[in-house]
Write a structure and sequence with these properties.
The chain has a 19-stranded antiparallel sheet. Strands 10-11 form a two-stranded antiparallel sheet. A hairpin with a 4-residue loop joins strand 20 and strand 21. The chain has 338 residues and is mostly beta strands. The mean pLDDT is 89. The N and C termini lie far apart (80 Å). It is elongated and about 90 Å long. It contains 3 helices and 21 strands.
């Protein structure tokens, strides 16, 4: 049949060109099967616009649970397939499910009416086993290259697992030209979902994490696409450990090392590399920077400080040392300034 649904306010609109529903029940065995086929569906709200070329969901059921689950969804440039089974009591279901996806990021951009343009193909798999409340999960994804806003990506990959509600981010890698950025670490969801993933979350303030970032050979121009004269190569390592993601309730520490070579914002590249190291911490009451040190050749800038986030007071101390201040313009890439 055909479905045509609209709310009186026009905020929701659902159109389905064709649907087929089939099923059967074997009463003596408390078992049966069901399937649903959809062709040519669209849903429009103020926030999303979904275009479904076709969708098919089928499964069999018995006293043991849902068996032989198969779902296929096709969008203009994307597809998703889910296969597996769910068993056990309703209060504590267990599963063995595999999701395979090929996603065109243009579909995501259009679906959520995003201002940020994006492109490229994302392919991958997610495998879930055991309790649906606290599942074991593995995920592998690949990005074949494209754009994310003004940034060009040549490739990307993600490898992650989850066990006991702890996500192990084995590696998230992005490459662009000669540059490479990799993130790894662990994210603990137990504080956010104390009763399991199928229960309501408590608060994002309970999220804990430790993450490491390593960047190699990243072109500064690719990070600052709007700064036409920016040049140089960035290498960096950073470690973040904290709790919460809400800026007003964040409690985290940062250790950072970064190096810029052939750096320039105004002209000829500097002769010496610029190296920066620092540690920082943030709590709901205070932002603290310690051990800040920037060096380039014989020029050294050191300092630290803090921001009282409750009283909005600031303290900072900096020390600049160089046997030859004429080196400063050269570091900025303009030897014409004396």
């Amino acid at each position: 049949g055909r479905i045509d649904y609209r709310t009186s306010s026009g905020a929701w609109r659902i159109d389905v060109e064709e649907t087929e529903l089939a099923g059967g029940i074997r009463f003596k065995e408390n078992a049966g099967s069901a399937s649903l086929l959809i062709r040519g569906a669209r849903m429009d709200t103020s926030d999303i616009a979904v275009r479904l070329v076709s969708g098919e969901v089928g499964f069999s059921f018995s006293e043991q649970g849902l068996e032989a689950i198969e779902s296929h969804l096709a969008f203009p440039g994307s597809h998703m397939e889910l296969k597996g089974a769910i068993s056990g009591p309703f209060s504590e279901p267990t599963g063995d499910l595999a999701l395979t996806a090929g996603i065109d990021l243009n579909d995501i951009h259009a679906m959520f009416r995003m201002d940020l343009p994006m492109s490229g193909k994302l392919t991958g798999t997610i495998h879930l086993k055991d309790s649906l409340q606290r599942p074991r999960l593995t995920a592998e994804f690949r990005h074949e290259g494209g754009h994310l806003g003004p940034y060009r990506l040549d490739s990307g990959s993600l490898s992650a697992t989850m066990d006991q509600q702890k996500v192990a981010l084995e590696e998230l890698v992005l490459t662009a030209g000669e540059g490479r950025a990799a993130v790894s670490g662990e994210i603990d969801l137990n504080g956010v979902f104390p009763g399991g993933l199928l229960t309501s979350p408590s608060t994002s303030r309970a999220l804990t994490y430790t993450l490491s970032l390593k960047q190699e050979g990243v072109a500064l121009a690719s990070l600052l696409p709007g700064v036409t004269r920016a040049s140089g190569t960035l290498n960096a390592m950073a470690e973040v450990a904290g709790k919460g993601v809400d800026v007003d309730h964040l409690d985290a520490t940062l250790n950072l090392w970064a190096e810029l070579t052939a750096f320039s914002m105004v002209g000829r590249p500097a002769a010496d590399a610029l190296e920066v190291t620092t540690t920082a911490s943030v709590t709901p009451e205070r932002l603290q920077v310690d051990g800040f040190r920037a060096t380039s050749g014989t020029l050294t800038l050191e300092g630290g400080g803090h921001l009282d986030r409750t009283g909005r007071t600031v303290f900072a101390a900096l020390k600049l040392a160089s046997p030859d201040l004429a080196r400063l313009p050269q570091i900025l890439g303009n030897s014409g300034i004396q």
